[in-house]
């Protein structure tokens, strides 16, 4: 039995969601295998273009990319199929993990494991921060925006959403003439 | 009504997350703490769970909190809510705005947003430091008060190891779980 296009898209992005651990960049090779090499629906260049547009929108990059690919291939229905496909494995797996975690959370062995794990999360966050500073803080103005956002939220209990809105507006004014 | 407000929080988070999974951490954290969905320590645990299970980090975190608050329905609703604003915007962009991301105003706005996200992530990182390096809850007034030597040593060990080997986070998370049981 031949699956309809939106069903095929749902299955393809279900695999992408299932095989991507950690999100973001990790997803690209899997999309390449499913959409470009296996199905030959799009070229890798088209995928990369969708990915780069996806990064300039809010929300989850993986699902944004899925929406672009789905829309290109099968319109609004395709976009919905791809977006739901990419989040379904997460929902199923996390439901299982959350249910198990609730049972085991109070065990000493789990408590101690997470004592260590919280430390590695801290180290991973520090590592990501260094990487983000290298790619996104290229002048004094960017440093100033980052620092003001930090101080506002950390010490004045400011809202992260308000910080983001203000930073976007400031960015638009400051960098408008400087980007091509 | 409470359920609708719960969903709206995730729509809001989805609309203001720029830069993917990590960028969502500070937003989700502020909402989760404000509504007492999670403690600081539980939030740090959640980051690890979301990073080491399949699927986008942001979806995993939304699903987990949704399940914890409202069961299976909550999990499905939270994860759909968090992608909804971007879904609608992506459709509009795909339909009407070619080369959206090459527009100078869009590029300029994003430069500002990405810088701010770093500042926000720094606040979330410090909060994780308070619950991971201290016995009980640390504070920034007496930073050495309650600082746990073994935790700091493990932290420094991981900083070096992550920098040196650049493996997928899941390996470090497993190792940390084992070491946690050996050390404590």
Automatic annotation (TrEMBL), chain A:
Domain of life assignment: Bacteria
Record-annotated membrane-spanning stretches: 12-31, 78-101, 113-130, 142-175
InterPro entries: CHR_Transporter, Chromate_transpt
Organism: Fusibacter ferrireducens
Any single Pfam family the record assigns to this protein: Chromate_transp
Membrane topology: Multi-pass membrane protein
Record localization: Cell membrane
Protein name from the UniProt record: Chromate transporter
Keywords: Cell membrane, Membrane, Transmembrane, Transmembrane helix
UniProtKB/TrEMBL annotation, chain B:
Compartment(s) of residence: Cell membrane
Pfam families associated with the record: Chromate_transp
InterPro entries tied to this protein: CHR_Transporter (IPR052518), Chromate_transpt (IPR003370)
Coiled coil: none
Transmembrane segments: 7-28, 70-94, 115-134, 140-163
Family listed: Belongs to the chromate ion transporter (CHR) (TC 2.A.51) family.
Keywords: Cell membrane, Membrane, Transmembrane, Transmembrane helix
Protein name stated in the entry: Chromate transporter
Broad class of the protein's primary localization: membrane
Topology within the bilayer: Multi-pass membrane protein
Keyword Cytoplasm (UniProt): no
